Amino acid sequence: MSSVASVALMQSVVEIEQHVAADGWNQRPRMFALVPTADLLVTQPSMAAALGLTDESAESGGIPGLTSIEQDGLALDQPLDEMLAKMVWPAAVEGCALVIESQMLPPSAEEQIPQDPKGAELERWVTKHPERQDVRMAVAVLRDGTRQAAIRLRSKDSDMEVLSGPDLVPNLTAALLETFEE
Fold first, then answer.
1. Rounded distance, CA 34 to CA 14, Å?
2. What InterPro entries would the database entry show (predicted)?
3. What digits encode the pLDDT tens for the residues 52-82?
4. What pTM was computed for the model?
């Protein structure tokens, strides 16, 4: 994992999270393909132009290393793990990012979890828990294993309060990396 890739991925995940945050809360999951901007300029010049990316801005260093392209048509009628297990990316896609909203509890709540809860039962229990936090997680990975995440708490809904780092959501990161395995 190069530091250049890590910086480019961090910039992408922060931009994606802010883009999604601009639409407010209570959103469906959103998936983004990440492509090298330099490749996009060569292979898709009309798309690059529509995004405001030009050879002149590339030469001046004014373009990001990665460009995110939102993917429409996600199969949201199935569990997230099943949807991700079916995803296949073309070679031109260097990485991907997923933004989902969820709820989390503090570690102290683990002892209170009902014994052997079923999926819907556990979900209802978490939703009613007084210490529940609503979160938006933007998780991004590259084919080479580089990873980054940005997490926004609904209770601290500010760009300045977004937590970021490579290891914040390890299970989701692993699931996204598997979308690149052949």
1. 13
2. PPA1309-like
3. 666 555 455 555 689 899 998 777 777 888 8
4. 0.82
